[in-house]
Amino acid sequence: MNKNSPISGHKYLQSKNSFSNAASKSLTDLINSLCEEQIVNQDLLLSLSFALRSFTNLQRFLELIPLLVTQLVGINGALLIPFQDNGTLWREQLQMVPMDEDSELFKELFLLEEGMQTGFGMQEKNIVMLDRLVKRHFDSSNVIATSIVSRGRQRGRLYAFDKKEIDFGSNIHRKHIQLVADLTGVAIENDVIFQVIRNHEKVDRQISIGAEIQSQLLPDQCPIIEGVHLAACCRPAFQVGGDYYDFMPTRPDLTDIAKASGRWAFVIGDVMGKGVPAGLLMTMLRGMLRAEVLSGLPPHCILHDLNQLALEDLTQSHRFVTLFYSDFDPRSRKLRFANAAHNPPLLWSAQSKSINRLDAPGLLIGLQPEAEYSCGEIILQPGDVLLYYTDGVTEAPGISGERFDENRLITFLDRFAREGLDAQQILDKLFQRLDSFVGVSDHHLEDDASMVVLKVNEELTLPELT
User: CA-CA distance, 62 to 94, in Å (whole number)?
Assistant: First the structure.
């Protein structure tokens, strides 16, 4: 039959249309297949991203990595060799799919002595050695290797492998493997950060406990002593500080009423430095000093003995202590004192309306084994105001950079004492002036700052009879 006949032409068109329809269907099936594969891959990556956002167990997360690579790329197996934060092989976290692929490789990696050296994973020659080691064990397979990097640091090595006759080295496969490696690096880095945060939280809890214990060692209230009014405050620069003040009866066995008229020891001190070490040393010194007070010795002997007791511990810690020790007899109003290089207390005289320093020669506690201290004494008069303080007050820097200094402290003490304020009011106003000078709203200072105010009660005067 003539192919140019109408019938032949019709059959030709039918055949051509049939072929076109088959090709179109094949192309549609291929596109659908690719779309389904893309959806599966997207689901796998989304699952990994979700695991990365929500994981709390790094080991469980790392166990997923080789399995995800095999499913994402469609290959036989994968191997993950992570490094610890110090660069050593993280032997406990070696992960491979399938697990029974090569137990000898696991054994060789686990026993690799070089892998236990700090910084192993940070040296390129060691990465090359790992690659050769893995490829030697998978000699009959194609192997793709990629680094797990986070913040510029090697966090491990990820390997994908399959039979040699199967080519899985396409660009899209490599991108998928690299994407998994990058997410793994983020997971390892996050875990390192989490561990640091947990350690900091533990330290913070311990410091908080230490601060609570230290705050309990400081007097929670001032004692009631005949003829005087006391007010005190310690404001540490950190949670734990090196400042210390205390009020101690020389006869703690007496009743509260008897103690009020008995002799009392007033002390203020400062350990060189601040924070936990200074706080621990001051706590130790507090125990030693309280034991010495019971001896009833005069102030200069107390400091001499304290220096002998604390010398070894302070020498080992490379720290020294300034300390002003005084005892007060309410019946005679006599104040005896000795000074171990501490800031001399300021005494405002109600009679002369002037301020003098109470000082006596003496070296730092912990400086020399045979340090000697002198003893001074004074009779306090009605209306007198005595201010004990640490150098955190006078050394506090202002907004302009200058220090609060002693002259400024003397000026304010004189002003508030002349106004006839009581001890607590004077203390509060001095701290208000200090805060205003430093320019802080949260009362945070660079160094521990402590002040104790003692005011002798005014004498009552009776009206004259006419």
Answer: 9
